[in-house]
Structure formats: C-alpha cells, structure tokens
Design goal:
Radius of gyration: 19 Å
Oligomer: single chain
Shape: globular
Largest sheet: 5 strands, mixed
Strand order of the largest sheet: 1-4-5-7-6
Distance between the termini: 26 Å
Structural class: alpha+beta
Order of helices and strands: EEEEHEHEEEEEHHH
Number of helices: 5
Helix content: 10-25%
C-alpha cells in the first residue's frame, strides 16, 4: 500500500513589526495591525519549547510509493528580495524529499505580483516542476505584509497528479485535488482558522488582523452577524 509521511513542525511565536494596510476604499485611513507585546520582564516563556521532532525520525530518503507532506505555521514569511524565509522552507523540502509543502498564516498579500514573483522564482531555484497555490483575503494591503493566508506547494512528479486547485476568497484555505488510482480523488486542504477575539483586541478598532479582515468581508456579504470562527467551520463544511 502507498505510504504517507506527515511532518508537522512546532514553531515559537515572535512579535511582528508595525505595518499598515488599506481597505479597498481609497479614502480609508491606513490600518495599524501591530500585535500587542509585553516588556521583557513580563514575557511569558512557559509556552516556549525546544523545536524537536516527536516520534520516529524520518530519513531524508524515501521510496517512490511514499508521499511526504510537511505542514507548519511559520507565523509569517518575510520574502526579502529573493525569497527570504520561504527559501529556507524550500531548501528543507528539497533536502527531506517533501512532496507537498503546506504553510498556514503566511502573513502575505498573495494577490500582489511582487509576492507571486518572489515565491515562484525561489521555488524554481529548488524544483524543476511544482504547483504553487497561495491564498489571502481580497482586501489589498499597502505592502507585502497582510495577516493570515495559506499556501500549498506540490513538487516534482506529485504535481502531475493535480487536477484542480482552489482558493478561499477570505484567505482561510487553499486546496489541491489529486487524481489517484482507479479514478479516486484526494482533496488536500491547507487551512488557517483565526484565533478567538479577545477583549483586548476588541478595543483595537484600527487593527486589521486576519479576524478583522474576515469580519469585514462577511459584512460585505450580508453575513456580518456571523462570528468568523463559526463562519469558518460552516463554510469549510459546505465546501467539503
């Protein structure tokens, strides 16, 4: 039987810099979505852990009947000029023979040509064949940074089995649909569900977090009375 390796990486969270983002309305004021931070003396380190694997180590080499999938939440990618953080994940995928790379909460405005160009050029430096599908909300940012978003990248021969891709307009998930043996179809979904809105964040009206983006877009679709986390579960269920 075919084998599937699933690699899930645990990451520690780091504060992000202050950025500005604009709604589609040209007259709108820039949104400040910088995260709240604590002083070094009050930093809670109880959730910080050493980033070690759990379970049996997975060798770099694998046989042709094995499909290897890597998933992690990078808490944002900085592309720099030539791919930045994304290049490091691509190098890992190449070294570890990863067939499918999934990243959630990439914090990029993937609708910008500059973002697409940097990511695809970085991917071409590592792989001759690949399918890269990225998704973020339809709200435009002033720069490359925008909270939320996901991506799926399928590499080499596995990419030839893709028959369909899709992107959620709210930036909550991206999908690759694969054609398997005997006509069976497998839908792979890389999704990011926003965190629960806290009382502290409720007071930050100018904060355009992924939660606030989804709230705004749901309102434009006459669904403003639905909480984004509930809408996520409802819409994903309908999609499936």
């Amino acid at each position: 039987m075919p084998t599937c390796h699933l690699i899930v990486q645990q990451c520690t969270m780091t504060p992000l810099p202050v950025r500005k983002i604009m709604m589609n309305n040209q007259d709108a004021e820039p949104f400040d979505f910088s995260p709240s931070t604590t002083s070094p003396d009050n930093t809670n380190t109880s959730t910080l852990r050493i980033n070690k694997h759990i379970g049996t180590p997975i060798p770099n080499d694998k046989d042709d009947s094995t499909t290897r999938l890597f998933f992690t939440n990078p808490n944002g990618l900085n592309l720099g000029r030539t791919g930045g953080d994304f290049t490091e994940y691509l190098e890992t995928a190449k070294t570890r023979n990863i067939d499918i790379l999934c990243l959630a909460e990439i914090n990029l405005d993937t609708r910008k040509h500059t973002v697409q160009d940097k990511m695809r050029l970085a991917a071409r430096r590592q792989f001759n064949h690949f399918r890269l599908t990225t998704g973020s909300s339809t709200i435009s940012s002033q720069n490359e940074f925008k909270p939320g978003g996901t991506l799926i990248m399928t590499t080499d021969s596995t990419s030839a089995r893709i028959i369909e891709t899709s992107i959620d307009p709210l930036g909550r998930w991206t999908t690759h649909t694969f054609l398997g043996k005997r006509g069976q179809q497998i839908v792979l979904i890389c999704a990011y569900q926003v965190c629960q809105l806290t009382n502290e964040n409720r007071g930050r009206k100018q904060s355009l977090t992924a939660y606030a983006q989804q709230r705004s877009l749901l309102g434009q679709d006459d669904r403003g009375n639905i909480e984004p986390r509930k809408a996520f579960m409802s819409d994903l269920t309908d999609f499936l």
